[in-house]
Amino acid sequence: MANRSYLYSADSMPNEAEIPKPVRCISEHNWDIPLAHKLLVGRGTTIVPSMIWNPPIGIAAEYADGAALLGDLLRAVGRGLEDDAEFAACVAGTTTHLAKQQAKYFVLETGEIVSMTDDDPAESVRRLVSSEIPAAVAEAEAAIAGRNDAWLASVRSDWQRHFASFYGDALYFSFPG
Questions:
Q1: Calpha distance 2→137 (Å, rounded)
Q2: Cα 109–114–115 angle (5° rounding)?
Q3: Which residues of the chain have pLDDT under 70?
């Protein structure tokens, strides 16, 4: 079984007392937290209790702003992949699913990924929120503004690793109604 990052949407953030209802499934990605997941939780980012595991290793963020950021980057990446039908299908599937599962917040579950090393999982999530996610957002914003062509070319050349996650109504960890 692969370790995965899981992305959900909800109308409230998880807290110590309860899991939001409903929790909508967005995406899962094997062996990594891909660039797309980092960007989707890149606006209004905060650490929240996990809905799956005990430590405070969930990450929540503003849905609309994160989705807009990813959409802008996908358009920038796509300007070099106009003839790539697989990329076009990936973008269409992603944007359609994001529109269908829209809520107030994204919730990223990191437990399986941050547990792959000997590092403290809570510290790994703090590092994600304090440096890795903001760095990814800054790179994307610069690329969107036309000031980061080398990074954009790198993302474009390996777009599957960054954007080709599984998007679906049911993930390995799904929440009832």
A1: 26
A2: 110
A3: 1-2, 177
Residue 37 Rama label (left phi>0; alpha psi -120 to 50; beta): alpha
* 120 Cβ contact partners less than 8 Å away, ≥ 6 residues apart: none
pLDDT digit string (tens) for 30-39?
Answer: 989 999 999 9
CA angle 25, 133, 81 (to 5 degrees): 75
Select from 160, 57, 38, 167 the least CA-distant residue to 112. 57
And the tokens for 144?
Answer: 């969107």
Please name the residue ranges forming H helices in the chain.
35-40, 63-78, 85-100, 111-114, 121-127, 133-144, 149-157, 159-163
> 3-class SS at 101?
coil
**What digits encode the pLDDT tens for the residues 51-89?**
998 888 999 999 999 999 999 999 999 998 999 999 999
Model-level pTM greater than 0.70? yes
Length of the chain as a residue count: 177
Q: Determine the Cα–Cα distance for residues 58 and 49; give it in Å rounded to an integer.
A: 5
d(CA 40, CA 95): 12
DSSP states along 128-159: IIIIIHHHHHHHHHHHHTTS-HHHHHHHHHTH
